[in-house]
Amino acid sequence: MTEKRALFIIFGGSGDLAQRKLYPALYGLYYQGRLAKHFAVIGTARRPWTDDHYHDIIKQSLVGAPGSAHQKTEFAEHFYYQSHDVTDAAHYVTLRDLAEKLDKQYALDGNRVFYMAMAPRFFATIAEHVKSEQLLSAKGFNRLIVEKPFGRDFATAKQLNDDISQAFSEEQIYRIDHYLGKEMVQDIMPLRFANPLLGHAWSKDFIDNIQITLAEDIGVEERAGYYETAGALRDMVQNHIFQIIAMLTMEKPARYDAASIHAAKRAVLSAIKPYTPTQVHDKFVRGQYLGGDDIGLSYREEDNIASDSTVETYVAGRVDIDNDRWRGVPIYIRTGKRLKAKQSRIDIVFKPTSDNILPTVNDTHVAPNVLTLIIEPETGMHLTLNGKEIGTSDAVSPFTLDHALDQDELAKAPEAYQRLMLNILDGNKLTFTHWAELAASWHFIDAIRTVWDNDKADGLAFYNSGTMGPQQADDLLARDHRQWIWQG
Ligand code: NAD
Fold this sequence. Notes:
Elements: E1 6-11, H1 16-31, E2 39-45, H2 51-60, H3 69-76, E3 79-83, H4 89-105, E4 112-116, H5 123-132, E5 142-146, H6 154-165, E6 173-176, H7 183-186, H8 188-193, H9 196-199, E7 207-215, H10 224-230, H11 232-249, H12 258-269, H13 277-283, E8 284-290, E9 314-319, E10 331-336, E11 343-350, E12 370-376, E13 380-388, E14 396-404, H14 407-412, H15 416-426, E15 432-433, H16 435-455, E16 460-464, H17 471-478
Parallel strand pairs: 1-2, 1-4, 2-3, 4-5, 5-6, 7-10, 8-16
Antiparallel strand pairs: 6-15, 7-11, 8-9, 9-10, 11-12, 12-13, 13-14
Bound molecules: nicotinamide-adenine-dinucleotide.
């Protein structure tokens, strides 16, 4: 395994994301030997920390990680802290001097990763200063990592994209959607393109509908401030759900490389037409959770939430793709907080047999085949088929083939952020989003958002915590003579 060489500059080095995700991810690469002698990390934030204190923070973030205390200390010694206000140009000069010094000291070949682990309002100014104060290295690679949220509508996303594009090319920009780093989301391509059995059935001719559920059982927790400005539609649908839709429905890419995959995703997303206001009312549902004894507060009673907030904590909707492969196949999506159970899953519901000759139980129809991919918290898949009931009966009844990914193997598999960090070092953009994909999804989301913002509380459905969301979400499918496969 060859060691990677790079300098990481983490803006927001004292923040939650850095401590919970980024440091453990870098350590995971160190533990595997992918980072060894030739790497260094500069963490920047406003607080006046010493390097020693920073090393303690790094080690604290590794509690529970494998490896000895000695290994963790050695790892932490690659970290340098710099107190830095990202809006102050002079601070970038100090940063550049430190970067150049570390580049020589660790023989980093001029490779630089600029990781923006800060509030998005700072992204443009960081990118601008990195360029104007000459932090871009002339020798190795320069890669800019952009966290979510990428804008709050198409206009702000475009502005952000234009701003960062002044300093970095599309090739150098890595937009994070950590769902793309999840094991089962990465399994979609092999399932579709390495199994003719599924690949041939992957169209409107055989698939009746697709259901995507990203359900959380917790409430808004400590993210209230952000959540009040976002809501479930922006927080989950625009990014994660749209990326999953793209992976499920894109045409086979010409090659297995980032450019071909981005082109295929872009093509299918552009076939999802933004809805008219009438279509929004017909095809999308929004809800907000209510509390109860032993179950927690209502959303409107939570700290830092307006008592008349109309922000949605739940969204369900029907997405239609206007192309030859998918015309007429609804993609039902839903996501919400305080639901009955936590689970992210995809259910592909195939068309039932139309000319059944076999006896069935209670004279009902033969059940459809359903392929279910469980993204989390477990990881695996089920395929529901039909067989003969055991015993003397000839009746057809469904059974399930289960494939749970090996827990020991999974435990050894890297967390999403570790995989993404490795991809960044490899220059592999497969698990990152292209601007065109975000633009398409924002156009779709904006059309819904505009209607909901005008409607204010009208149409906001309240649902009890611990349920699967408002009744309207069930009605949405019932109108199409369908139902949600997963009932929580
Ligand atoms: P945070 O508030 O915990 O950290 C923000 C960091 O920015 C701190 O280190 C703070 O010192 C620094 N900072 C603020 N103003 C500064 C300034 N003027 N100059 C220099 N430093 C300054 O935020 P977070 O939760 O770590 O989130 C960071 C980014 O990651 C956000 O874009 C967020 O949406 C995204 N994100 C976070 C998570 C998560 O689990 N925390 C998950 C997904 C995405």
